[in-house]
């Protein structure tokens, strides 16, 4: 018999649940909690097939409005985890800026065919109405949608559900203004690189580049004012969004009576 000890076996495989970084695991835990949240009738908010969703940053600033007719849960997960959407792939939306999510389900359209023209028109109207509200509530009067929703007659928004996706520890770490400034500058750099490398990109992507630059300038100026002990800057006095990018209420390429049939519902 040999006195040599048996060689050690291979190290145990790391559980898949422990592969992501701690802040990513905390974010996904909060996302799952959002998916499990129910309304007064016991329906999971995110299970609505038809509806509109809104993303907010660490300041509660609205940054993105979208719609879906496949399922809110599916669409939001695709945005925030799989990163398989045009908004993320084109660097228009930085998932690490998303701190809150709000959903506006259209419950009475459950089971309706995705090709139903009336249902699609209602969805367009809801998205545009939520978009107008986001613009009104934004300190910059602009958000990061590459494609402005099809112009529709505004409607009353249905009951919504808003949820904080950021764990306290992550907010304390990643919410520091210097970290957010660096992150936003990186986002702008990546977005500019997309425009440079592809050459031919949408006017909306270039509009978003300007809006992100405004958001970065304001964040940096606010940080400077904070360290110098001065009042926070007034975005109304500092930025004239319409002078910089034109109207954010409609796409210049769209006619006023555009019904939005060519709009990609899941972008």
Proportion of residues in extended strands: 5-15%
Instruction: Give the biggest beta sheet.
Output: 4 strands, antiparallel
Biggest sheet, strands in spatial order? 2-1-3-4
Question: What quaternary form is this?
Answer: single chain
Please describe what this structure looks like.
The protein is α+β, with helices and mostly antiparallel strands. 43% of the residues lie in helices and 9% in strands. The protein has a 4-stranded antiparallel beta sheet, with helices on both faces. A hairpin with a 5-residue loop joins strand 1 (51-56) and strand 2. The longest helix has 26 residues, at 203-228. The radius of gyration is 21 Å and the shape is globular.
Task: Produce the secondary structure layout.
Elements: H1 22-36, E1 51-56, E2 62-68, H2 72-82, H3 86-89, E3 100-105, H4 117-137, E4 161-164, H5 168-174, H6 177-198, H7 203-228, H8 235-238, H9 241-245
Antiparallel strand pairs: 1-2, 1-3, 3-4
Essential attributes:
267 residues, alpha+beta, 4-stranded antiparallel β-sheet, 43% helix
Summarize the structure.
With 267 residues, this protein is α+β, with helices and mostly antiparallel strands.
């Amino acid at each position: 018999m040999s006195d040599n000890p048996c060689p050690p076996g291979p190290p145990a495989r790391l559980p898949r649940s422990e592969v992501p970084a701690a802040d990513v695991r905390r974010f996904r835990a909060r996302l799952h909690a959002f998916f499990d949240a129910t309304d007064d009738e016991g329906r999971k908010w995110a299970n609505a097939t038809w509806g509109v969703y809104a993303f907010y940053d660490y300041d509660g600033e609205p940054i993105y409005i979208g719609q879906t007719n496949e399922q809110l849960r599916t669409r939001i997960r695709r945005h925030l985890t799989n990163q398989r959407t045009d908004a993320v792939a084109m660097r228009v939306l930085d998932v690490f800026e998303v701190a809150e999510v709000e959903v506006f389900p259209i419950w009475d359209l459950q089971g309706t065919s995705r090709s139903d023209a009336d249902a699609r028109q209602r969805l367009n109207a809801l998205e545009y109405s939520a978009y107008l509200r986001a613009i009104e509530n934004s300190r910059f009067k602009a958000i990061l949608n590459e494609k402005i929703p099809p112009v529709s007659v505004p409607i009353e928004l249905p009951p919504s559900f808003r949820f904080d996706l950021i764990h306290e520890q992550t907010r304390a770490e990643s919410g520091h203004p210097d970290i957010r400034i660096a992150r936003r500058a990186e986002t702008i750099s990546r977005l500019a690189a997309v425009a440079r490398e592809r050459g031919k990109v949408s006017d909306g992507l270039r509009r978003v580049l300007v809006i992100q630059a405004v958001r970065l300038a304001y964040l940096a100026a606010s940080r400077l004012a904070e360290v110098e002990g001065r009042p926070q800057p007034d975005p109304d006095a500092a930025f004239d969004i319409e002078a910089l990018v034109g109207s954010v209420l409609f796409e210049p390429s769209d006619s006023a009576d555009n019904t939005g049939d060519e709009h990609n519902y899941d972008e």
